[in-house]
Fold each of these.
Amino acid sequence: MKKVITYGTFDLLHHGHINLLRRAKELGDWLIVGVTTDNFDLERGKMNTIQNVVQRIEAVKATGYADQIVIEEYKGQKIDDIQRYGVDIFAIGSDWEGYFDYLKEYCEVVYLPRTEGISSTQLRCEGPSVNIGIIGTGSIASRVIPESKCVNSNCISAAYNPSEKECRAFSEKFDIPMAAKTPEELLDNCNAVYIASPHYTHYQYAKMALDAGKHVLCETPFVLETAQAEELYSIAQEKELVLMVAHKTAYCPAFLHLVSLLKSGVIGEIVEVNASVTTLTDESSDKLDSKRFGGSMNENACFPLLPIFKFLGTGWRNINFYSKMKRGVDMFTKAVFRYDSAVASFQIGLGVKTEGNMVISGTKGYAYVPAPWWRTDYFEIRYEDQNLNKKYFYPFVGEGLRYEIKEFVSKVISRDFGFFRLSKREILKMTEVQEQYLKGVNVFKL
Ligand code: C2G
């Protein structure tokens, strides 16, 4: 039996892909199709895929040409697959002419003519686009714009800042078509908003946008009260809108894999999570202004809360907070969570500096994520027997904000309202912790 193998992303499957699969199948008796994983595509620079791996596999299956489907998840896998499956012919489109000649050592390599005039890129451009209006034109918004350009199917259509002068300067700098004079004008010129305003204004803007039927991507911390968060989620649900929190760590490849790896038991039962995030900040900054809900908890708590919830869940028994105060805000807070059979803690600070790493301890070993763990491309799994230690490396492209933008844009386009990467429950619980702190429950001031 002659075995043929071919690979691809097969995003928005079109007749070019179908021709390729048909021709590949005609070369032999058994066709194996390798479909790239979402992470592998990110790693090889494909940020703009619209469909996830499951949807793409289903589409390939539906063509009826594949006798076997495998997923391609790492560079060099083609050689392993050819040997593992006893492949006779490797086939790929002629746009790759010459590139895969190195496989000739293992099997026959055939470049099949590419179908002209059709591509996933073209379909993505023709497809629906998300026109994003930016509310708040500070430093985070400036970082988001270049990152959004790396993601397909979106454009920044308008910006709003209560200061007209700042808004105009920002819009000119980033070539944004509209510097809106009012939030209403912004909402009239977009179908989604990205909220990057001071956090005590998030609720008001998010509500206004959802009421106007716009999808919302909101910076962290989301809102200051659980009741506000619940209200926003229920409006989004009722109106079938995407409401997502822009927590960049939750969408970055290394963190996503750390979660699935530890969930699979590689360090045994998880008994402790400890993480720190400190950023020394000028005392005159808004981030330390008590009237604007500044302070370390409001600014940084959502970062360490993410791994704590992912690894230990949200069923803690109690939390104690220890805060070093100055002018009515916490310059530094240590929080300790008691779970039934585990403990978690974090250190966060705007006026105190410490090592920004994360350690997750289990009954068989521990995970060590060096600083800055919240935007990492690397971690280690360590054991008593050091020979078993393993290092893991991942891509972390640019500022890492493109991962969350990509997730948001593809959710809006595919009208997919379920967020498995950062759930509504986790966001509500993050808000609950911050609310508990603001109300002073178990807060010990130093
Ligand atoms: N293709 C084609 N005609 C088109 C478009 C694509 O023949 N108009 C072929 C490509 O040459 C490739 C296959 O369809 O053989 C899948 O294309 P993509 O989904 O774009 O995947 P690609 O990025 O080419 O990945 O490891 C993955 C492989 O390297 C190929």
Amino acid sequence: MNISDIRIAPSILSADFSRLGEEVRAIQAAGADLVHFDVMDNHYVPNLTIGPLVCEAIRPHVTIPIDVHLMAEPVDALIPLFAKAGANIISFHPEASRHLDRTLSLIREHGCKAGLALNPGTSLHLLDHVMDKLDMVLLMSVNPGFGGQQFITATYNKIKMLRARIDAHKAEGGQDIWLEVDGGVKADNIGAIRRAGVDTFVAGSAVFGAPDADKAYITIMQHLREQAAVK
Ligand code: DX5
Ligand code: ZN
């Protein structure tokens, strides 16, 4: 994997919500590959954030894909709403859907890439019979609900196991599946996370936690990319 193969997805959970349009424009200008959009419902997770209206509001401000992470339950009714609001990728947690296969199909039917989000304690075996329906697996490296938490180190092993599964699937003629990690990604661990096999990195507080000058985002994004590329 080389540096151009990696994708960085700043999570706007840690952005300044009073000026979200400017914030997403600034991260795109700083080289972000995706906008990570965390949806929390005070039911599946103990926090409450943003919905399709906000997705629709930021859509005209960027051309990069919007990567919607649903931490909400139930999920099916939200899929058409987010597709209409301009989402490009929609991921959900298996515990929040009664019918994994159906929900994955629904996302693709609405023209979006489909992702499954696995909590630190959720087994990779859930992927066994739906590999062909996946465009992305989102591995949580913290328990979902809040930005600024510490990366759970047991995730490294899980990443390696998932990388092997995805590579085996591809070797058998399967489609591309992105491996995204979410939670506690910083400049000092992004290299190790990439070496374990991740290609897509969510970074919330690492990007938006800095002083809010747009210039700082460029420096931070470059630093993350450089650190990710360290062999
Ligand atoms: C947590 C969210 C993450 C969060 C990451 O539930 O899914 O996307 O914003 O934030 P950091 O990078 O600060 O851990
Ligand atoms: Zn997220």
